[in-house]
Design a protein that fits this description.
Shape: globular
Strand content: under 5%
Radius of gyration: 22 Å
Helix content: 55-70%
Number of helices: 18
Strand order of the largest sheet: 1-2
CATH topology of one domain: Helix Hairpins
Order of helices and strands: HHHHHHHHHHHHHHEEHHHH
Oligomer: single chain
């Protein structure tokens, strides 16, 4: 009995919320990899474990990068497994377990409540359980609406049963910002289709703004909440700016190249779609490898920023990008504080933002270096120069849990695949969360020494 109590106390003290979150995602990935490695999950033969691990990680981390053709290489059972994985990964493993305990009439531990609130909320709320239920309600409503709209279009190309299955798969994938598709060319065949494009873009944006923003907008619409929070305003404004500026610059950079033979309507639709999809979802309606260098840089920036906190997407998040620009703007105006909408952002939030962006950029640099070293081969520098752009694009796509690729994913060797697996995992849980989970637990604030200045800038 004493041994049991000792082990329980030992584990409880070391299972901090970040570690529980890390273990939850890691456990889901390993279970998914094992299931996908069985013969019944593949259409012919069986997947190598590294390919099963890559596919499972991409699904749980809602990335969308694929080393196999999900529509051809996976059986129906394997495809259903991926649906369950990216649905679970999008909403969060801890969220599912928490709701399960609520439905069973059991209480939720303080640690479980803390993990869920940290995942979806910017501040603690009294209506926590109502918000938790609304997450599943919104998910059901949006995915059902997306399935219905896509079914209307897909039923013109496939039998009713196949069309419905395709609609479910792509609607769930889109809302969870995953980007897995059963079509070998993603959504290239529906490049100019207004219904498919608007439906998928609507699901991507809705899933990417975060559940707390969805909840506050719905509450304001019902009159329950007088106004939305500062967090929601920053998310909505930043999201709109990124989509509109992204579409404008995509059109500007590609008007004389990829878009030159397209009708005006298609040009606008393609530009809008490619401005939305880098925000953590890998659906595409153009060949990414054919884009200009300026457009690739634009997509890399959008992928690095990613979606919003508490959403199904990754990246450094829209709020981090907005706060960094606001900090620079306030510094240029001589303000030490970061002020917006008659509010001052806490210094610890600004400090955390800088840490997140730095840790993210450092992680991308490390993984890109590994890809270059592991896949450089014996080609001379001038002939292997394109690998840098391809590998950098692939790494940022993995970090932002986007899933867009210049076509290099199926050609990765095993070392490179494992590096991308680590990047997708770090991108989904966050580099800082991963670092905190690996650090030792210390009590107190630690020692403070005498200050001494250092020249910077």
């Amino acid at each position: 009995m004493k041994t049991y109590l000792f082990m329980r106390t030992f584990i409880s003290r070391r299972l901090t919320p970040p570690r529980v979150l890390i273990l939850g995602f890691a456990g889901a990935i390993l279970i998914g990899a094992l299931l996908l490695s069985f013969q019944f999950a593949a259409s012919t033969g069986r997947l190598r474990f590294i390919d099963a691990l890559f596919t499972s990680t991409s699904a749980v981390c809602v990335t969308g990068l694929a080393v196999v053709d999900n529509g051809k290489d996976l059986s129906t059972a394997g495809q259903v497994i991926t649906i369950l994985l990216f649905q679970t990964g999008g909403l969060g493993i801890i969220t599912f377990s928490t709701v399960f305990f609520v439905l069973m009439g059991r209480g939720i531990s303080f640690k479980g409540r803390e993990i869920v609130q940290t995942t979806f909320l910017h501040t603690r709320r009294r209506d926590f359980f109502i918000l938790l239920k609304s997450i599943f309600l919104f998910t059901l409503i949006f995915e059902s609406a997306g399935t219905l709209l896509l079914f209307v279009r897909f039923s013109k190309d496939f039998p009713a049963g196949t069309a419905f299955y395709q609609a479910i798969y792509h609607a769930v994938s889109a809302f969870n910002n995953c980007g897995f598709s059963l079509f070998s060319d993603s959504l290239l065949r529906y490049q100019g289709d207004l219904l498919v494009n608007l439906t998928v873009m609507g699901l991507l944006v809705t899933g990417g703004i975060g559940f707390i923003v969805q909840y506050e907008i719905f509450s304001k619409w019902r009159g329950v909440q007088r106004k939305v929070s500062l967090h929601s305003r920053i998310v909505l404004i930043t999201t709109a700016i990124l989509i509109l500026t992204g579409a404008f610059f995509f059109y500007l950079f590609e008007r004389n190249y990829l878009l030159i033979d397209q009708p005006v309507g298609n040009r606008i639709l393609i530009s809008l779609f490619q401005a939305v999809t880098p925000r953590t979802c890998g659906f595409n309606t153009v060949e990414i490898g054919f884009l200009t260098n300026a457009t690739l840089l634009l997509l890399i920036v959008l992928m690095f920023i990613g979606a919003s906190p508490g959403s199904t997407g990754g990246g450094v998040k829209t709020t981090s990008a907005a706060l960094l620009l606001l900090m620079l703007w306030n510094r240029l105006r001589g303000n030490e504080e970061v002020n917006i909408h008659s509010r001052t952002i806490p210094k610890e939030v600004v400090s955390r933002t800088i840490s997140i962006i730095f840790a993210s950029a450092f992680s991308v640099s490390i993984i890109t270096s590994i890809l270059l070293v592991a896949g450089g081969g014996d080609l001379p520098p001038l002939e292997s120069r394109q690998f840098f752009v391809e590998y950098l694009f692939e790494t940022v796509s993995a970090f932002g849990t986007v899933g867009l690729s210049m076509g290099v994913t199926p050609r990765l060797n095993d070392v490179q695949k494992f590096a991308i697996v680590l990047m997708m995992f770090a991108g989904r849980v966050g580099p800082l969360t991963l670092a905190f989970s690996l650090s030792r637990i210390k009590s107190g604030r630690g020692l403070t020494y005498a200050e001494e200045g250092v020249m910077v800038g």
